[in-house]
Amino acid sequence: MNVTLAVTAPVATHAIVLAAQPGNGDNGGQGEDFGKSSPTGLLLLLVFLIAVAFLVRSMTKHLKRVPASFDPEEPTDDEAPSGEQADEGAAPADEAEAEAKEKAAEKAAEKPKEKAEAKEKSESSG
């Protein structure tokens, strides 16, 4: 029994590293002024910080006005409970609305009468 094994020579892997050497003229897109900030940049940064401060101040003012809960409030004993007191408060508003509707209906009914009377006068005089 002869077993022949195909033995291959170990494959050596080589990593080729391309490192930029200093002073070769290629800065990778980083010019002479790379990393240096200008006074305009500082001014822009300060303007943004001031704007954020005003926005935070405004937001806190608005959040203080928001109620703790949006659930409907239950009336307390001191407030008008359901019953006679609540009905008394609503009655004058209902009466006023009813009176306003009656007056509007009366005015609407009077206009055709006035037109008819004016028409009769013009026909009788003509």
TrEMBL record:
Transmembrane helix recorded as keyword: yes
Basic and acidic residues: compositionally biased ranges: 98-126
Region of interest (Disordered), residue spans: 64-126
Keyword Membrane: yes
Record keywords: Membrane, Transmembrane, Transmembrane helix
Ranges that cross the membrane: 38-56
Biased composition (Acidic residues): 71-87
Protein name: Preprotein translocase subunit SecG
